[in-house]
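Hello,

Our lab assistant flagged a job as stuck in the queue for most of the afternoon. It eventually completed. Since we weren't sure the result was trustworthy after the delay, we are filing this so someone can double-check. Below is the sequence as submitted and the structure that was eventually returned. Let us know if re-running is recommended.
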Amino acid sequence: MPTVLADAQNFKPATSRTGEIQVFGRRTTVDATLTRIVSLAVATGEAIGFSGILIGAQSDYSDQIVAHIWGGARRAAAGNVTLTGTPTVTILESAAATNATVTADTTNQNVDINVVGVAAETWNWEFFGTFFKV
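-- returned structure --
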């Protein structure tokens, strides 16, 4: 039986610049603070497309959130990382206080996938996705 890869992996066709890169992130939250779960680096003169599934569950599994996240970002020769339009974050949840967002981190030049848990509750989060660069 195949195992899920804990490290980023790459599928690269012969004519592709970077191929498809798998990413995985895991975090635990105990409050309602924005928490980064995955960062996707965007180099100068690059554009990326990304897609993934985020799952969060309260530690006793009484509540859950599932989100499909996809979007794009770019970084011009002399500029900061910029999201292309508004990334799509489709959420199904049983706890309305949870959330998932995508932000451009112009300090570190990354696209960040973020989560928000619930105050005074332990939530376990995992993100699995892919991205590629042009």
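-- support follow-up --
The delay was a queue issue, not a problem with the job. The result is valid. The mean pLDDT is 90. DSSP finds no helices and ten strands in the chain.
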